[in-house]
Amino acid sequence: MRSQSGVFWRTFGKACRLAVNLLIFAVFFVPFYWMFLTAVKNLGQTLRLPPAFWVSAPHWENFGKVFDAIPFFSMLKNNLVMTFGIMICQFFTVIPAAYAFARFKFAGGRFLFGLTLATMMIPAQLVFLPLFLMFSKMGLVNSYASLILPWATSSFAIFMLRQTFKQVPQELIEAAKLDNASEWKIIFKLMLPIAKPTIVTLGLITFILNWNDYFWPFVLTTNNAVRTLPVGITSLNIVDGGVKYHILMAGNVLLVAPALAVFLFAHKQIIKAFTYMGGK
Amino acid sequence: MTGIELRGVEKAYGGNKPVIENLDVQIEEGSFTILLGPSGCGKSTILRMIAGLEKETAGEIFINGIDMRGVSPGAREIAMVFQNYALYPTMTVKENIEFGLKNIKVPKPEREARVGEVIEMVGLTEYMNRKPQHLSGGQRQRVALARAIVKKPKVFLMDEPLSNLDAKLRAQIRTDLIELHRNLGATFVYVTHDQVEAMSMGTDIVLLESGRIRQQGAPESIYSAPKNLFSAQFIGSPPMNIIKAENLEHGGASLPPGTVSLGFRPEKVIVSGEGRAPERGQISFRGELVAREILGDHAIYKFKTAFGCIHTKTMSGSTVEYGKWSVRVDAKYLYYFDEKGDVIK
Question: From the CB of residue B135, how many other CB atoms can be counted at a distance below 10 Å?
Fold first, then answer.
């Protein structure tokens, strides 16, 4: 009897776990599914009640309409320039700052690090007006510089990378010193390879965040020559004669596809970086 | 000739009281010198100052007669083996070993030859392209040694390199190190708190306590002629038995004037039947056997006596049964210590 009830509870436990997993899956998956589905509906289907959860004849031409409505490819180019511009800038600002905070003792070092952390706690909505004024005074509004410079460094990335550098045992650096390695050699041959999972993860996070960023590009650009995709896709929302949800969603599919691809491709790397940071 | 010399070296951290004060040490060229002492005695700090990883607050350090002031760790012609091996985790075994040679721009053919030779010497040829995380503790230890050997340094510095290994491996690498020292003829400076390692490998032992040298000499001489209570009790396993003199004087024994305590090695004790009178020139204690460790070739016994616990060590023979016994020791094996703990000749 006991073994039978044991089997029951084990099955019950498995079923519960499956149910919870399915629920979590649904929470994450359904919005994406809904986006794809709406993107291939026609206007009538998007407005029908109750909504259809399957489309037998997908309207692929919706994607073409996105290209007609906005200068898609130039906006894609702007998006790429902005995102990679930010990543390259951060590479050159974050790594030296994190290394200095982690390994050197200098006057005001702790204060500066505290200041860096404090910037993480200031919401963007608080600084966008003064920043906009500053950029417009320098004549940088409506330029790539206005898209890239505000994110040319990241206090979050500095913080994460500093922690990684700090975890490298002192003995390793001493061994390298005894091996006649210069400070630069220690950075490039020892510290950066050790911090590689963190750096790759930070790069991916930066990519995904900035690729989808809407607020800042919207504030600092006023013409389509430098506007990015998220701004352009949102402009699909404001078309005469009601919202064309199917076109809007088709635009969204095109927008998130690269970010989604990057994430699917690299999620193992991201998980590895976080477990490495936690575990050792 | 002197390999390494420390003259009046002092080390203080921040504004604190110095951990090492006015220390003079001479390490013979080609010796296997052990810096031995309990944790916190400053032995690792001394090693790190020799390596240049830690800057001395005052005093001078000479390696092969050259003043090391302002000489960077890499330029001191030394190699160091760390307690946790400090292998570069992202490099393979081979890259770990050749990193130092690359940095001093040894030409590739010579580098390859030297690395190959050393890898073979430590028996890691088949693991050459593995990363350290895929090696066992013993293999990592050998990579660390290889990384030191390949530089052909005049001085090897080792900071408790065996403490992370299991007992069997430790014993094996101990003999490997003795062999290595004999083959290379370089100066070895080895830090440990383990007197067994010190006795078994060292040609010279520097025994330290709280940043001061308590005794320096060959293992045999430190063992047979300890200068003070500290070295008498630090060297030897189990340590020397120490009995308070005042207790003995009540028993009518005659001791040299000024004796506060006396000691004798566990292996000099004879165990015999209770009540047996001591022979001429012997002292005897009546005691009860309370613990027994049979170790095959020898055995260690702990007796409880009116004068305190006495450990004895006997080589193979009949096992002593639990019960009351008389333990005796020849007066010629006794050491007498004055109130400062120094030995009385």
Answer: 18
